[in-house]
Design a protein that fits this description.
A 4-stranded antiparallel sheet has the order 1-2-3-4, covered by helices on one side. It has a 3-stranded antiparallel sheet with strand order 5-6-7. The chain has 3 domains: 89 residues, Double Stranded RNA Binding Domain; 100 residues, Tyrosine recombinase, N-terminal domain (DNA polymerase, domain 1), CATH 1.10.150; 204 residues, Intergrase catalytic core (hpI Integrase, Chain A, Orthogonal Bundle), CATH 1.10.443. By secondary structure, it is α+β, with helices and mostly antiparallel strands. The longest helix is centred in the first third of the chain and has 35 residues. It is elongated, with a radius of gyration of 40 Å. Helix 14 crosses helix 16 and helix 16 packs across helix 17. The chain has 18 helices and 7 strands.
Length: 451
């Protein structure tokens, strides 16, 4: 085949047809190389085409035609380059037609991904400029408040409006740093008659808002309020509220049962009533501390006020509470895992206290007051004071009483905990009478725990 030059293609006319037909067809081919030709059309258009044979997956030869564009938009040199490249693909067993489709799809996918990336960048820029602290705080409040009482809902928003919005409300959420929050909180602390309780609650709410933004919008990566400890501020003066009279335990349990909030918190308060441990001892409880066979919960020394491990016998009622919790939080380390970061955190230090407030028991008792409720009832029953004090994890007042080890009182404490749970449930029986029957029917358990 003679060498074809660009000038030849340029000079080529539709009327130059030299084929076998007497009349010029609507389109005809001018060969440039084996399989490469210019398709001449009646309207004067010159189109580059490449015809080749390719074996399909069935092993049959299939004729395919590739179009390279119109001349002179695509020059002879460019057409030949495409022609050679596609012939090379055929030699490698690759169908140029399929390859071109693949590359086109890949190109479209990349273009789509790039467009999406640019759109996302714009969204992120808009978010950072548009999403101020006030907007995010209100959004968090709207999301969480359906679980709260009307009074608590109003109190939370009022704290933002009073303290936070005037200072950081209009700031973009990603521009707020730990220093800004410390400055805000310290300013509250330095006021005459500072509202210290409100300050501590605000600190917790600031942290909650930032966690919400991190999880929902990914605008920020770190929570500037997370490392601000309550110990950084003046201590709230301790208030001594009366213990709940044991006659009011049924009403407390009725209100707990009717509570519609976070189930983990509800079960935490139920367990607190039955076990009367300190709130901090309960809140951070882990499944590894539970001995299901011996029905004992061992609180490690790190969480105990006296710095010594404390054993809490588990009553039948507490077993049922733990089984409910196991369904909810059994795959997390904490028995009372937080709703926000269940793999890493327990419920907040105020969760149970807020629930007491929401069920209308805030002015009646506190979490610590439940310990006094048990102590008063147990002393009324003339139970051995050493057994009571041991179960309350109180340090003995003299060396003789301190010399007793936990196993010497454990059978009595096991019976005591079951008796108290029964009492809470309305099965009110003198402890002496209960202990006698319990010891006879639970001999094997009492022997096992002392091994």
């Amino acid at each position: 085949m003679a060498v074809i030059k660009d000038t030849t293609i340029k000079a080529l006319k539709y009327q130059n047809y030299k084929g076998k037909n007497k009349t010029i067809p609507n389109q005809w081919k001018f060969g440039v190389d084996v399989g490469l030709y210019v398709l001449m059309r009646k309207n004067g258009a010159k189109l580059w085409q490449h015809q080749y044979s390719f074996k399909n997956i069935d092993g049959k030869n299939v004729r395919r035609v590739l179009s390279y564009g119109a001349y002179p938009d695509v020059s002879l040199k460019e057409a030949k380059a495409k022609y050679r490249a596609n012939n090379e693909l055929v030699k490698q067993g690759i169908d140029p037609f399929d390859e071109r489709e693949r590359l086109e799809k890949e190109k479209q996918a990349k273009a789509k991904a790039e467009l999406k990336r640019l759109e996302q960048e714009k969204i992120e820029r808009d978010r950072k400029q548009k999403y101020t602290f006030e907007k995010m705080a209100r959004e968090w409040h709207n999301t969480k408040s359906p679980e709260w009482s009307a009074k608590h809902k109003t109190e939370v928003m009022s704290s933002f409006q009073r303290f936070a919005f005037p200072v950081i409300g209009k700031k973009p959420i990603d521009s707020i740093e730990r220093f800004d929050l410390m400055e805000l909180l310290k300013d509250i602390e330095q006021r005459p008659n500072p509202p210290l309780t409100a300050l501590r609650k605000l600190r917790q709410r600031l942290e909650a808002v930032f966690w919400y933004v991190i999880d929902t919008y990914k605008i920020i990566d770190e929570n500037p309020a997370a490392n601000i400890k309550s110990t950084s501020f003046k201590k709230v003066p301790e208030q001594h509220l009366r213990a709940l009279p044991h006659e009011e335990l049924p009403e407390l349990m009725r209100r707990i049962e009717s509570y519609k909030g976070f189930m983990t918190t509800k079960l935490a308060l139920k367990m607190l009533v039955h076990t009367f441990v300190r709130h901090s001892e309960l809140r951070l409880a882990q499944w590894s501390e539970i001995d299901w066979n011996k029905r004992l919960w061992t609180i490690p020394e790190s969480r105990m006020k006296a710095g010594k491990p404390h054993v809490v016998p588990i009553s039948n009622q507490v077993i049922e509470i733990l089984k409910e919790l196991q369904i909810i939080n059994g795959h997390y380390p904490f028995i009372f895992a937080s709703n926000h970061k269940p793999h890493q955190q327990a419920i907040s230090e105020n969760a149970v206290l807020v629930m007491l407030k929401n069920i209308g028991m805030w002015q009646t008792t506190t979490a610590h007051g439940l310990r006094s409720t048990f102590s008063s009832l147990a002393n009324e029953q003339q139970i051995n004071p050493d057994v009571i004090e041991r179960q309350l994890a109180h340090t003995a007042g003299d060396k003789v009483r301190a010399a007793y080890n936990r196993s010497e009182y454990l059978p009595h404490r096991i019976a005591l905990m079951q008796w108290y749970s029964n009492w809470i449930d309305g099965k009110q029986e003198p402890f002496g009478q209960f202990f006698e029957s319990f010891s006879k029917s639970n001999t094997s358990q009492l022997i096992q725990v002392q091994k």
